[in-house]
Amino acid sequence: PNVTYIESNGASHVIDVPLGENVMRGALYNNVDGIVGECGGGLSCATCHCYVDDAWADKVGTPTSQDEVDLLEGVSAERKPTSRLSCQIVMDASLDGLVVHLPESQY
Ligand code: FES
Known about the structure:
Family: Belongs to the adrenodoxin/putidaredoxin family.
CATH topology: Ubiquitin-like (UB roll)
Structural class: alpha+beta
Oligomer: single chain
Bound molecules: FE2/S2 (inorganic) cluster
Cofactor: [2Fe-2S] cluster
Largest sheet: 5 strands, mixed
Mean pLDDT: 97
Strand content: 15-25%
Organism: Novosphingobium aquae
Protein name: 2Fe-2S iron-sulfur cluster-binding protein
Strand order of the largest sheet: 2-1-5-3-4
Order of helices and strands: EEHEHHEE
Keywords: 2Fe-2S, Iron, Iron-sulfur, Metal-binding
CATH class: Alpha Beta
Shape: globular
Distance between the termini: 29 Å
């Protein structure tokens, strides 16, 4: 399924992220700037912060664990209602076409 990553400078990248893979890795493996993913998806860094596009917010849903909620409180960029940790968004067929926006900085 395709994910469109839009960097804060407007650059966009359409990446085919395999089913079952998370949105953080899809960016990392394809050299998309704007996602760091320092902890490798272990829910301990918050450097994989992204903003789910408004059109996708309902489908992607809210944070899936209390750990994610807690980490989102510490993100360095502005936190928005659509903020998620991209390592916690796992691709399934229903997310084909997903659009995420990346913050200017992860630190
Ligand atoms: Fe560290 Fe997502 S990669 S919390």
